[in-house]
Amino acid sequence: MIAKLCRFLVLSFVLVVSILNGQAAAAPGDPVQADRIVAIVGDEVITYYDLRMRVDAALRQLQKQGTSLPPQELLERQVLERLIMDRIQLQTARESGLRIDDSQLEQAIGRIAASNKMTPQQFRQALEKDGVNYARFREEIRNEMIMVRLREREVDGKLVISDGEIDLYLANQSAAGSTEEYQIAHILLRAPESASPEQLQKLRQRGEQALKRAQAGESFAELAATYSDAPDALQGGNIGWRPLDRLPSLYADAAVRMQTGGVSDLLRSSAGFHIIKLVGKRGSSGPASIQQTHARHILIRVNEVVSEGEARRKLEVLRERIVHGGDFAEMARLYSQDGSAAKGGDLGWVSPGDTVPEFERAMDALKDNEISPVIQSQFGMHLIQVLERRQRDVSAERQRAAARQALRDRRLDEAYQDWLRQLRDRTYVEIRIDEK
Fold this sequence. Notes:
By secondary structure, the chain is α+β, with helices and mostly antiparallel strands. Helix content is 51%, strand content 18%. The protein has helices spanning 2-25, 48-65, 72-95, 102-115, 120-129, 134-154, 163-176, 197-215, 220-227, 249-255, 308-323, 328-335, 357-364, 396-425, and strands spanning 37-41, 44-47, 180-190, 238-243, 267-269, 272-283, 289-300, 346-350, 375-377, 380-393, 429-431. The longest helix has 30 residues, at 396-425.
């Protein structure tokens, strides 16, 4: 999970710097229709200047990847839709009180700096030397983190996998015996939740147009950048290597019948229409062992009586006491609001996928006996301490945990797209890009 977060931070850094470099390049007095409104989203507006900066960043990203550039008008519409979705998510987060404080933000920027083999101070100096406004850079990264946290809370944390689903999955795996992995690229044309037959027909025609071009051999990455509503559109729609069982069911059913390099028919789901390309296929033996972490924690729950700020302050005081010699287990017994409190906060041996993503990320980042800063999850505020780690062979119990994670991975993409579609449908959006 730490690796996944670091990849997110590095990708965010590349995009944000591209955007901010574009802003730095614009002349101070440039009258580029800066106050022309191209969309209204809830109680906010998106200007043509906002759009142009994001389009310029997208063009630089596509050029760096060697992707043929789509027509400017089509790219503008795709980028505008992504800007709209970003604004909707940030408004939703703000209304629900979700925030990233400065300490969390500095930790994230520290990871980006480390990935560039710099100290935070060297990293800041390098950005400023390139003409990037550091204060604006920090806020863009904060926004990216807020959207990730929002997804974790509203989608990842609410996805439930039943024991019956796990039993069925393991039975199917035993019968199939497949160890292959698939590299998939996709195009998503998102349909409104209550789309009319006319809207669906128009969307289908657009999908058939993209499919015809893909089948004719045009660059799939360019088509994804032109047509796809998925967040990974500017990365060519590539979702990377996954075992068949970790692909969305719709994609897995199509991919297993495809040859490498092939393009699917136009696929239909509740989220809209999809086109997938099988980029590659390879064998995989799967992990023979996993790393387990022996950890303990203190939890302060957030509710109507205890605010996020109050819970955080309580834990920061406790952390200071523990760092200066206080007994973690005793503090957990006295203050933790978790079932593990009676055991001094001891969670036993924790395996990958046993905890929620934000808890697992923080735990994985710790050295043995290190105490985390205060971290937030859907359950409240935590302090975490790692006691020790070990490698363990995959047992029947661990196979069930791996199956649970595989089922989560398969369903998360579908759940995320459904959630985005619902957010979009219940937010007031007015598009004015065609108005001159």
